[in-house]
Specification:
There is one protein chain. The chain has 600 residues and is of the alpha+beta class. It folds into 5 domains: 179 residues, Rossmann fold, CATH 3.40.50.300; 85 residues, Beta Barrel (Elongation Factor Tu (Ef-tu), domain 3), CATH 2.40.30.10; 71 residues, Alpha-Beta Plaits; 84 residues, Alpha-Beta Plaits; 111 residues, Alpha-Beta Plaits. Helix content is 26%, strand content 33%. It contains 13 helices and 31 strands. Helix 11 packs antiparallel against helix 13. 43% of the residues are buried.
Length: 600
């Protein structure tokens, strides 16, 4: 296989612009799958991806394509996610490519994540082929979108390809454009080995499967490889290319994208961005890796059964191998026991991690209320970064507090403008702006506190726009805010797992919501249970769970009234004594109920 016949490319786009469908069609046209074996979302191999109709993990496949010039080319396709929460997956995939297909919906045009991914591709000096997809839609206007690509994105009109990934129209032209416009990889197969790890996953039978791009040199089974970041050495068992299944090869050489199996059982030895070289003939310097990602949403995960803690620890290790943007550290709670404090790129990322842990590793979990990272400036001049309510500083030492703000971009049909603007104002939105990218659709931008978005903003937006609203955001800065710690007390006892940091104006509303939700979920006892929301020593909300009343006078019929009164007084004294020593068990579903916004 000559380097000149290899093309490494990625498909990048906004959410729902048809990346996975185009990947399916390219795989079909290249003959990698028969019509009988074909299924939608071929590269999306997680159940959660198929159910939600989104791509979460970048996936790689090598497509053999016989071009019109008679030569056979090997096209390494890396399909990427579109959602902003998985942009780190995109950045790692692009580091392994020379070119990218920038996919744009013929009906919706250029959108927020289209621009974000274009800038990522430009940062990596990639050759870009714009592709207008969904030209078969009745509302498609490919000519207007082509003008938008030239005017707004500054890309050349002559390279624009038009296709319908659904019907297969224009797919051959895209393959020819990949062969003719995208450059072949550069690299010296005779130089010392330099392979960039851009992903990895864990196979219970073979150990860690490393996905890598060979920049220079070559690697084959039997070689002893050396990880330049953590100095670990392993003997290679197998190398190969990615098809719909793994395809072993004699060797991988400069320019190729493939996998390496080396019996790596220690999950922590493999880090995306690390450089692999040969122990006997090492490279002079490692490749520049990936920049560290900044988490924006934090939550603690606890196993429902304390016996699952060790399993959860092992599962977190394996998941971070496959998802480099997830961070975690040990945490503990008096109510929930031992768990992990985790950092996520967004709320969808949090939901996906929770579902993957429950499905792939069979560990039922409890989450604490999601939080963001706040800045607390103290009287002594120092600054403390807090993402966990447990570390809230003493209020008397705080000089001022700051919270992160985002620039939210919302695409909606025109008729929902009023409802969306009201929602943003309720969430302390400011600097609102809107314009019409095309007739009937509005692009609405607004600056919002990130804490207001992670709670239930996306659910509300989908509800008021009947599913037509798309939402994207980018962090902009930290701004002065008035933050307080809201504690929840059950029967006078503080439940640390339900504590949250909130803006003072929203504290009472959040406290009432938590109290009402807990009242519905906590079973009644033989004594009254007070559920209270408190800021410091001030109670700001309360509900009471009424006591169960056992009918102790059921057997007393007839006779003197004093007999009944005596039994009732005895019961009253018993309840009072029970209240002083009684503990309230809070069921797991009560913790989850507090996270949900409203009754559906």
């Amino acid at each position: 296989m000559s380097d000149k016949n290899i093309r490494n490319f990625s498909i990048i786009a906004h959410i729902d612009h048809g990346k996975s469908t185009l990947s399916d069609r390219l795989i079909q046209v290249c003959g990698m799958v028969t019509d009988r074996e074909f299924k939608d979302q071929l590269l999306d191999n997680m159940d959660i991806e198929r159910e939600r109709g989104i791509t979460i993990k970048s996936q790689t496949i090598c497509l053999p394509y016989k071009a019109k010039d008679g030569k056979t080319y090997f096209l390494n396709l890396i399909d990427t996610p579109g959602h902003v929460d998985f942009s780190y997956e995109v950045s790692r995939a692009l580091a392994s490519c020379e070119g990218a297909l920038l996919l744009i919906d013929a009906a919706q045009g250029v959108e927020a994540q289209t621009l974000a991914n274009l800038y990522l591709a430009m940062d990596n000096d990639l050759e870009i082929i714009p592709v207008i997809n969904k030209i078969d839609l009745p509302s498609a206007d490919p000519d207007a979108v082509a003008m938008q690509i030239e005017d707004d994105l500054g890309l050349e009109g002559e390279h624009i390809q038009r296709c319908s990934a659904k019907t297969g129209e224009g797919i051959e032209d895209i393959l020819e454009a990949i062969v003719n416009f995208l450059p072949p990889p550069e690299g010296d197969p005779n130089a010392p080995l330099q392979a960039l790890i851009f992903d990895a996953n864990y196979d219970p039978f073979r150990g860690t499967v490393i996905s890598c791009r060979i920049i220079n040199g070559r690697v084959k089974a039997g070689d002893t490889i050396f990880f330049m970041a953590n100095k670990a050495t392993y003997k290679v068992d197998e190398v190969g290319l990615f098809g719909l299944t793994r395809k072993p090869q004699k060797e991988l050489r400069a320019g190729q994208v493939g996998y390496i199996l080396a019996g790596i059982k220690t999950v922590t030895d493999t880090k995306p961005g690390d450089t692999i070289t040969l122990k006997d003939a090492p490279a002079a310097a490692p490749l520049p890796g990936f920049k560290e990602i900044q988490q924006v949403v934090f939550s603690s995960l606890y196993p429902i059964s304390t016996d699952d803690y060790e399993n959860l620890a092992a599962a977190m290790d394996k998941l971070t191998l496959n998802d480099a943007s997830l961070t975690f550290q040990k945490d503990s709670s008096s109510a929930l026991g031992f768990g992990f404090r985790c950092g996520f790129l967004g709320l969808l990322h949090l939901e996906v991690v929770q579902e993957r842990l429950e499905r792939e590793f069979d560990i039922p979990l409890i989450l604490t209320v999601p939080s963001v990272s706040y800045h607390f400036y103290l009287e002594d001049g120092s600054m403390k970064e807090v993402d966990n309510p447990a570390y809230f500083p003493d209020p008397s030492t705080i000089s001022r507090t700051e919270e992160p703000f985002i620039k939210a971009t919302i695409h909606i049909p025109e008729r929902y403008m009023g409802a969306v603007m009201t929602l943003c104002m309720e969430r302390r939105g400011e600097n609102t702006h809107y314009h019409y990218p095309m007739p009937g659709r509005i692009e609405f931008t607004c600056e919002l506190p990130l804490a207001e978005v992670i709670y239930d903003f996306y659910d509300k937006l989908k509800s008021i726009t009947q599913g037509y609203g798309s939402f994207d955001y980018a962090l902009i800065d930290y701004r002065k805010s008035e933050l307080v710690k809201l504690d929840i007390l059950v029967n006078g006892e503080k439940v640390d797992a339900l504590s949250q940091l909130v803006h003072r104006n929203n504290a009472r509303e959040r406290g009432l919501h938590a109290c009402e939700r807990l009242k519905e979920e906590i079973p009644r006892q033989m004594f009254k249970i007070a559920i209270q929301g408190a800021i410091g020593g001030t109670i700001i909300s309360r509900t009471t769970i009424a006591a169960l009343r056992k009918d102790v006078t059921a057997k007393c019929y007839g006779g003197d009234i004093s007999r009944k009164r005596k039994l009732l007084e005895k019961q009253k004294a018993g309840k009072k004594r029970m209240k002083t020593v009684g503990n309230v068990d809070i069921p797991q579903k009560a913790f989850l109920a507090v996270l949900k916004s409203e009754k559906k």
